[in-house]
Design brief:
Layout: E1 12-16, H1 19-30, E2 33-39, E3 46-51, E4 60-64, E5 78-81, H2 85-97, E6 101-107, E7 111-117, E8 123-129, E9 132-133, E10 140-141, H3 148-160, E11 166-167, H4 168-178
Parallel strand pairs: 1-4, 5-8
Antiparallel strand pairs: 2-3, 3-4, 6-7, 6-10, 7-8, 9-11
Length: about 180
């Protein structure tokens, strides 16, 4: 069971045109597990529930019904946190091999991210947090051909040069002081 102290984003759903292609993409690229699937009784779409965690029945829901003539996706981004920079590199290779397009990398200071379009044009972000805070939006080029050590040195230098810089723990303490009490 997910433990929360206030309303907390926990999962999201997107409409898709080709359900099986999208199930294949998200299971193969991100290793998500299909936890359930079926047609809704009141919501008359085919639904596929997927998760990366045994603590959450679903973190992503794919729902049939996206019109084939949809001119663009209204999904701003679907974001996946990963445990290391190497995971970002690995997912980049898998995603491109499975039909992802429009790949770009950004160093946000507080995170290192790649963005790409999934096979139906939804923007996907894959990221790792850094131990730094800088005000957002912030985006410098990210070159994943550099070593992890070089990327982290570069990121720290970029962050320390920003007047809004603070260590992540300091930002978290400010967040806790500003959060509404439960």
């Amino acid at each position: 069971m997910l433990s929360v102290t206030r309303p907390t984003p926990s999962h999201f759903g997107i409409f898709v045109t080709d359900t099986e292609r999208m199930v294949d993409f998200y299971t193969q690229v991100f290793g998500l597990t299909v936890t359930d699937r079926g047609r809704g009784r009141t919501f008359k779409s085919e639904l596929v529930f997927m998760s990366a965690s045994p603590d959450q029945h679903h973190q992503l829901v794919l729902a049939s019904g996206r019109p084939e003539d949809a001119s663009f996706s209204t999904v701003m981004q679907i974001s996946f946190a990963v445990p290391s920079i190497q995971h970002i590199r690995d997912i980049q290779v898998l995603a491109l091999a499975r039909g992802a397009t429009n790949l770009r990398g950004l160093n946000h200071g507080n995170a290192l991210s790649i963005y790409f379009s999934d096979p139906e044009g939804n923007t996907v972000e894959v990221y790792i947090d850094t131990p730094y805070y800088v005000a957002q939006p912030h985006g410098d080029a990210l070159d994943l051909s550099k070593s992890d050590e070089e990327l982290m040195r570069e990121t720290e230098a970029i962050c320390r040069a920003d007047p809004t810089f603070m260590p992540l723990e300091e930002w978290r303490a400010k967040f806790q002081r500003a959060a509404p009490s439960a």
